Amino acid sequence: MPTVSKGGPNFMQSIVGRIECLGIRVVLPRNKGGAARSVSNSRPFGGWEFFGLSSFSQDGKAGKGLKKAVQKTHWTHKLFLQNAEVYLPFLEAAQSLASTETEALAGLFTRFSMPKDGKVLDVACGIGRHSILLAQRGYHVTGVDLSPLFIFEARQHAATAGVDVRWVLGDALEVQKLVKRDSPFDAFVNMFTSHGYYGRDADLSLFRQLRNLASPEAVLIVLTMNRDWLVRNFHPEGMERAGPFRVLQRRSLDLETSTIYNDWEFYEGEGEGLRLRLKVEMDHRLYSLHELRALLEEAG
């Protein structure tokens, strides 16, 4: 795993990148001089109106041009809230990777001297694939996800595994409000390319909020699609199957904006009974290693 360089002050004490065919792993220990945030109670939330994604800025005001990007019509609302049961089998299919990925996470925690009972925040935790396995290793884990169905499944899996994980239902773009009372955290994990949904400005806000929730030597681990690898290995079409569904994927890549556009068509059934269940048009901001590093340096 090559060491890229030492970064600037605060969040970018150092950065370690591992480039793979699947993407980039980036580890960012926070500067030893970084101050921890105070702990206070987070506001309660409930009901579907909470999920009308609101703003990115930490002061509660939407940045210029950002409010439109997080309306309820956004593809994340359609896929993860309105039709979460369609995407659920694909998360369950990815469970086969969880053990290997969690082993890698634990290795990085050890490498950066994280306490064996440290506090971990799993941002966009889905059905808890990594959260539960980390809890089994003795870490105190909090998982945040937008989807009520995914959080419900995560609770069920955790109960079966006999582990205690704090599950928080809410928008990762408001993560500082959601889990402030539990801070500071010793590690943050953001897996399965679970950012880039709303563009660079939203990602900048997300990582700034994580910085504000971090302990002085916290570690951030990001597993994401590598933009440079994708350029070299781009396929305009693909298909995956999980449970009763198959998804036909049509893709286009905007090199100027590092944005991938996807049209996903989910089909259910077999043979003459095959029917279109859901169509989702998505756009997703990708990063190369140097772009992700620049983003995290800007985050502070």
Explain what you see.
29% of the residues lie in helices and 27% in strands. It is an alpha/beta fold. It folds into two domains: 209 residues, 3-Layer(aba) Sandwich (Rossmann fold); 53 residues, Single Sheet (N-terminal domain of TfIIb). The strands form two sheets. The protein has an eight-stranded mixed sheet with strand order 1-2-3-8-7-4-5-6, with helices on both faces. It has a four-stranded antiparallel sheet with strand order 9-10-11-12. β5, α5 and β6 form a beta-alpha-beta unit. It starts with a strand and ends with a helix. The N terminus is likely disordered.
List key phrases describing it.
single chain; 300 residues; alpha/beta; N-terminal domain of TfIIb; 4-stranded antiparallel beta sheet; 9 helices; 12 strands; disordered N terminus
The CATH class of the largest domain, by name, is: Alpha Beta
CATH topology of the largest domain: Rossmann fold
Main sheet strand line-up: 1-2-3-8-7-4-5-6
SSE arrangement, N to C = EEEHHHEHEHEHEHEHEEEEH
Q: How many distinct domains?
A: 2
| CATH homologous superfamily descriptor of the largest domain | Vaccinia Virus protein VP39
Main beta-sheet strand count, sense and barrel state? 8 strands, mixed
Task: Furnish the topology, listing elements before pairings.
Elements: E1 3-5, E2 15-19, E3 24-27, H1 75-82, H2 84-93, H3 98-111, E4 119-123, H4 129-136, E5 140-145, H5 148-161, E6 166-169, H6 175-179, E7 185-190, H7 200-212, E8 214-224, H8 227-232, E9 237-242, E10 245-254, E11 259-268, E12 275-285, H9 289-298
Parallel strand pairs: 4-5, 4-7, 5-6, 7-8
Antiparallel strand pairs: 1-2, 2-3, 3-8, 9-10, 10-11, 11-12
Helix pairs in contact: 1-2, 3-4
